[in-house]
Design goal:
This protein has 245 residues and is mostly helical. Helix content is 56%, strand content 9%.
Length: 245
């Protein structure tokens, strides 16, 4: 299932979301412009390597500073290839604008970074011995998806399912689609924990970021007086749409 459209109208231009997409693209272009050896060093220096903090002696031996926690932030802006970047930025484009609309640009940026930090912590805790750098914005974007699920649970997400050469389009409620996505992350993360040599995706970063987004977004919600009235398909899951709490 490929999400191709959301149905929540926005009142304000998503400036912060545009900026995040642009920054991710600019960093990736710089990353791939480096020679191969420098690219690897760049990813190791600014990607999240859990063993950097759990085995400082190893980190010093390979030239990493175990006292620098900057990679918890910088890893959000690195990607492993064009497909990785495009899929992440597409998801951020789809879900981020509506969430920013409800939070405001500054609070949205703080929210995004906070989700990314929780995602990094979850990944490091679940993969403490890993010497492989984890890169990508997917943990922070998982937080945006968690916020979207809580803010707009009854809105529709249009999905594309390719069957052979025929595209099939249908719509699901946001709460159902995101819940299915999250369950898949938990299943894959559990399997990766049982067979750590088999996984290359930071599943626990997705899980940590999603939970953080689900919990944090009510704390940063734009005051009702600053925003248009809710539509009938909006609201926070389990609460009355008109009041949002």
């Amino acid at each position: 299932m490929i999400p191709i459209q959301t149905c929540v109208p926005v009142r304000y231009p998503p400036i912060a979301n545009y900026a995040l997409i642009g920054l991710n693209g600019a960093v990736f272009l710089f990353q791939i412009s480096l020679p191969a050896a420098e690219q690897e060093a760049f990813v190791y220096s600014f990607g999240l390597v859990p063993a950097r903090f759990t085995h400082p002696e190893w980190a010093l031996r390979v030239g990493l500073d175990p006292r620098s926690y900057l990679p918890f932030v910088t890893t959000m802006f690195l990607h492993g290839g064009w497909l990785h970047l495009i899929l992440n930025m597409w998801s951020l484009w789809l879900f981020g604008g509506a969430v920013e609309d409800r939070l405001g640009s500054v609070r949205y940026l703080l929210f995004y970074v906070a989700c990314g930090l929780f995602a990094g912590l979850a990944h490091a805790a679940a993969n403490a011995e890993s010497t492989v750098p984890a890169v990508g914005a997917s943990g922070a974007i998982a937080g945006v998806m968690g916020a979207y699920m809580r803010l707009f649970p009854y809105s529709r997400i249009v999905l594309l399912v390719p069957i052979l050469f025929l595209p099939l389009f249908f719509a699901l409620p946001a709460a159902l689609y995101v819940a299915i996505w999250f369950i898949l992350q938990v299943v894959q993360g559990t399997l990766a924990t049982l067979q750590p040599q088999a996984g290359g995706v930071a599943w626990w970063a997705h899980i940590g970021g999603f939970v953080a987004g689900l919990v944090i977004v009510p704390l940063l919600h734009r005051p009702r007086r600053d925003y248009r009235p809710h539509y009938r398909d909006e609201g926070i899951l389990g609460f009355r749409p008109r009041e949002g709490r």
